[in-house]
Amino acid sequence: MTQNEDLRENMLRQVLQHLSQQSESQYLKILTGLAEVATTNGHKLLSLSSNYDAQMKSLLRIVRIFCHVFRIGPSSPSNGIDMGYNGNKTPRSQVFKPLELLWHSLDEWLVLIATELMKNKEDSTDITSILLKQKGQDQEAPSLSAFEPPGPGSYESLPPGPGDSKPEVLAGEQEASADCQDVISVTANRLSAVIQAFYMCCSCQMPPGMTSPRFIEFVCKHDEVLKCFVNRNPKIIFDHFHFLLECPELMSRFMHIIKAQPFKDRCEWFYEHLHSGQPDSDMVHRPVNENDILLVHRDSIFRSSCEIVSKANCAKLKQGIAVRFHGEEGMGQGVVREWFDILSNEIVNPDYALFTQSADGTTFQPNSNSYVNPDHLNYFRFAGQILGLALNHRQLVNIYFTRSFYKHILGIPVNYQDVASIDPEYAKNLQWILDNDISDLGLELTFSVETDVFGAMEEVPLKPGGGSILVTQNNKAEYVQLVTELRMTRAIQPQINAFLQGFHMFIPPSLIQLFDEYELELLLSGMPEIDVNDWIKNTEYTSGYEREDPVIQWFWEVVEDITQEERVLLLQFVTGSSRVPHGGFANIMGGSGLQNFTIAAVPYTPNLLPTSSTCINMLKLPEYPSKEILKDRLLVALHCGSYGYTMA
Q: Interior CA angle at 116 toward 111 and 119, to 5°?
């Protein structure tokens, strides 16, 4: 019954749930049967002759049903003590025993691949070359049986059938084509699906929010092979390695690979997991219950919205949201969009003293003096809720924040370049300290600075005993970083904490880490339109370039050819902002006031990438010999994070 594709999975769950609750023995019998079916299907999936798509879907479907029935059974565990992984042999833990055969096969396949990878460093992902090498040496056609894991394994205990995945069985099926296939490419998806099933079974035996120690040990053991799979086919992350989102320890091992995936793919993965388990695919809809409608007053929209959202059920707000203005009949997505648009403007309303405008005049930063508003922390929490709700429901907000604030949302450390958004001159001073030898200058700086504390200037140590520690050539980098953290983080830590408390009610920290600060801005505020003609009109040239030079002509042709997203990346790369201020490129601000977009010539050397000085909106463009090379190098810089930012 569990393999009948015509039966809906939810219906199967309900039927099996009902049957399993008749008695303890019936419950255990159903679970054992499901485990045996899953094991058989898993071995079929590992057989290279089977239909991957059909077997993968069948295995994961059965495992989902198995885990559901296990969780809802009599006296479901709350602490994992009776799950069997601590040595206790309870009846409930024994239902997993048939699956151990599948996990053993999985482990042997991964060890097999790891062994061959270690032996062949020069071609670390191509087992085909190994097979061909063996063929030349032995004058025999290779087979996968050459890679059979040592020991008898547990295959003999499996019931006979076409799905047996023992390597020597596969050899007969695959011998004719083994010498022309990359075994990793063939097996990676199959093994990854079984890994997903293993994770699901481990997780259902643990309390909510806790990752199975057994699974963590498994991933650590096979770390190199799993990374090899992902490098070969990054989509495996999105298809099967869902465990990365639920375990920070494991996610950190793969984060560099995850962030290298296309922005579009990460967005799809983000929303797939954000909305997993939610019954309604139409995110912004009218709730059935009239009590769930957010009834707000237009003339006091900020305060009334804050009050009603703070009392609303978060789970229901995640599933859907409907807004009605008091005294008005209108409802629907248009009203919801208007509500978000008005609130995003109100969040930065100076009357609430929550945010201050940054030096560039287009972005906002939390106000370190927001305490003048007695309710400021409640309002920051509400601001976090609004941005979290907007992101949850794919609604754009009409507000842009400083790069450092996006970093705070993502948990990314700030650096001294971020200071330029609130104090360009101070940022220049920090840059000067880093760039120059301060040994004999007599600056007499210590690890303490004078700063505003609740309206009064006080000496604040950057670290314990900082007032008596001199800044030297050897420790100046630490000084610059600590000063940056004081100005950009410690000064507004309560505000940041309150904001994140509200934001994380709707957006889990592990999910938002999929993005960098530039991508988060695009997710929250959308893609701004860029007028290329206005850009050209308000650009200056220096260090030898002139408007008529071939390199400049090629540059603007490339700008016109690339996508709108890539133009935004270019604008961010050079100015630090994805937005053009009101009035166009003529009003772009630099560190000392109005500063046009500028392109400076740099001598060409092979493979040299463009860099930028964000403080003065300058693109340092090498004198490339052709348009093709210019475009290639520019796109590499934009997409691969060659953020050669410098302070003028």
A: 125
Helix (H, G, I), strand (E, B) or coil at 180: helix
**At 163, which amino acid appears?**
G
CB 599 within 8 A of CB 530: no
Catalytic residue set: 615
User: What is the C-alpha separation between 610 and 621, in angstroms, rounded?
Assistant: 5
- What digits encode the pLDDT tens for the residues 95-117? 899 999 999 999 999 998 888 77
Token digits of residue 616: 């003065």
Q: Which helix (H) or strand (E) holds 518?
A: helix 517-525
Strand intervals (E) in 335-482 = 355-357, 364-366, 448-453, 456-461
354 domain-assigned = no
Beta bridge partners of 622: 602
Chain-centroid distance of CA 406 in Å reads 14
Which contiguous run of DSSP H or E holds residue 572? helix 564-575
Residue 199 lies in a domain: yes
Q: Can you tell me which residue has the tokens 């400076």?
A: 600
Structure tokens that stand for 638 in this block: 């934009």
71 in a domain, yes or no?
yes
State pLDDT tens for residues 576-631: 777 777 568 887 876 566 788 999 999 999 989 999 887 688 999 999 999 999 99
Could you tell me if residue 364 is inside a domain? no
CATH code of 628's domain: 3.30.2410.10
Say what the pLDDT of residue 90 is: 56
HSE (side-chain half, CA atoms, 13 Å) at 541: 17
d(CA 321, CA 532): 38
Round to whole Å and give the CA distance between 60 and 58: 6
- Structural tokens at position 45: 């999936």
Query: How many Å apart are CA 631 and CA 300, to the nearest integer?
Result: 51
**Phi-psi region at 437: left, alpha or beta (left = phi > 0; alpha = psi -120 to 50):** beta
CB 569, CB 559: distance < 8 Å: no
Measured between alpha carbons, how far is 417 from 310 in angstroms, rounded to an integer?
36
CA distances from 293 to 309, 344, 490 (A): 10, 20, 38
End-to-end CA distance of the chain: 70
Q: Which of 261, 283, 304 is the last residue of a domain?
A: 261
Domain boundary residue, one of 204, 239, 261: 261
Tokens encoding 384: 């976090």
Domain hosting 619: range is 528-639
Count of domains observed in the chain: 2
Tokens 């790369």 sit on residue: 573
Contact present, 211 and 199 (Cβ < 8 Å) = no
For 21-53, what is each residue's pLDDT tens digit? 666 777 788 888 989 999 999 999 998 888 999
Number of Cβ within 10 Å of residue 255's Cβ equals: 14
